[in-house]
Design goal:
The structure is a single chain. The chain is built from 16 helices and eleven strands. The chain is of the alpha/beta class. The strands form two sheets. It has an eight-stranded mixed beta sheet. It has a three-stranded parallel beta sheet with strand order 9-10-11. Helix 1 crosses helix 6 (about 150-165) and helix 3 crosses helix 4 (about 125-140). It is globular and about 85 Å long. Residues about 1-10 have low confidence and may be disordered.
Length: about 400
């Protein structure tokens, strides 16, 4: 972010002086499928937030302006939460429930108001600086689930700044045709909004397999490739682009031959999906007639819907350690365990659900929360050895499991 005295100019963008040459980029495919369309580029990190000093007499007026903007942002987030809950379910709506809680959190709001009052600065600057400070704290944590909260804080800052400036959301619904969104970053609310506006694929510089944005893209069945540093400088609006969320390949300015190849892959992928869905009700058996029960292994509760869609006859393994990682640095309570396991059981009924008790060996969480300080925790105190060594924590999980199974 630039300060008021030195505003930054627009990004240089790709060089268009010569003939356009096909470029193939390789990233991390985190939501499978093939998308073919025109690029729409969105750079969020280049948004300028300026610092303006305020005369003493304008501080109270600026505080009132900030409070009005907070109320508008709350209305926007609550409406988004309701839409997501209706379209995608309560689990994903919970992401935006967290956003609403942050917008009501007095610690967060008081820090912003304190900056306005003490530094005599405009509300936009105070919001961005406070959010940046908290994002830095999240980013310093080792757990991936904690680092993912940096997206939530960035999202909240944008909601507040848009409300302060009266800026509307980006709207892609009027562009028409198939749009592949290319961005340096994409927050969960952006993913939901753009996913409902005709976007057929996401290509972003940052992100990972367990981010909220990835979960939403997967739930919307939108191909997503992450880990593409610099792609926003290589692409421009209206560029033809191909995105393969299965292999992690993005092609800019494809040749006719390459376009034909990926159109074939897209047809094959769609046809394979339809064929698989058409057979999901068939009984699974070996050639000599031995019945086989096909079940799904999952890490996230959001994957239950996908398992049911493809006809899984239960959850063969739910890895419960993700619940601990998601809650860190706090440990999940008995009610946390019960609510999650009960949801798994109810949504997969009448099929069985197998839940593995936590295995946190080799993770920073095991060292810090469980106090297992070993030179090689992967081979040491983990699995059942860890649970038996920490019986008070193990009993909480077992009580939640017993309650859910009753």
């Amino acid at each position: 972010m630039s300060d008021a005295s030195e505003p930054s100019g627009p990004p240089a963008g790709p060089d268009r002086s010569g003939p356009l040459v096909m470029q193939e980029l390789r990233g991390l495919g985190v939501s499978e499928g093939v998308a073919i369309g025109r690029a729409v580029c969105l750079e969020t990190r280049e948004q300028d937030v300026y610092r303006f000093p305020l005369p003493e007499g304008q501080v109270e007026e600026e505080l009132a302006r900030f409070r009005r903007a907070t109320e508008r942002a709350l209305v926007e987030v609550d409406e988004l939460r309701c839409r997501v809950g209706s379209d995608l379910g309560a689990e994903l709506a919970g992401i935006f429930e967290v956003h609403g809680l942050l917008l009501r959190d007095r610690f967060f709001l008081d820090r912003i108001e304190g900056r306005i009052r003490e530094e005599h600065v405009n509300a936009e600057w105070a919001v961005w600086e406070t959010a940046a400070e908290l994002r830095g704290r999240f980013a310093s944590l080792q757990q991936s689930a904690s680092r993912d909260h940096t997206d939530d804080m960035r999202d909240i800052a944008r909601h507040l700044i848009r409300a302060l400036q009266g800026v509307s959301h980006h709207e892609l619904s009027e562009i028409g045709g198939d749009v592949v969104l290319i961005a340096d970053d994409l927050t969960p609310s952006d993913a939901v909004r753009f996913g409902r506006q005709g976007v057929v694929g996401f290509a972003i510089e940052s992100g990972g397999r367990t981010s909220h944005t990835t979960i939403i893209a997967h739930s919307l069945n939108i191909p997503l490739v992450t880990g593409l540093p610099g792609i926003t400088q290589l692409a421009a609006h209206e560029d033809p682009v191909i995105l393969d969320g299965t292999t992690g390949v993005v092609v800019l300015h494809p040749t006719a031959e390459v376009l034909d190849e990926y159109e074939r892959r897209q047809r094959d992928y769609d046809q394979r999906t339809l064929l698989l869905l058409a057979t999901r009700e068939l009984k699974a058996a070996t050639r000599d007639g031995v019945p086989v029960q096909l079940m799904a292994n999952i890490d996230l509760v959001e994957e239950v819907d996908e398992a049911r869609r493809y006809g899984a006859q239960g959850i063969g393994l739910y890895r419960s350690e993700f619940l601990y990682i998601e809650r860190s640095p706090d440990l999940p309570s008995e009610d946390d365990h019960y609510a999650l396991y009960r949801r798994l059981v109810e949504e997969m009924a009448p099929h069985p659900v197998v839940i593995r008790t936590y295995d946190l060996g080799g993770r920073k969480l095991a060292r810090e929360v469980m106090d297992t300080r070993e030179e090689n925790p992967v081979l040491g105190l983990r699995g059942l050895r860890l649970t038996l060594a920490r019986p008070q924590i193990f009993r909480i999980q077992l009580r939640g499991l017993f309650r859910a199974g009753c």
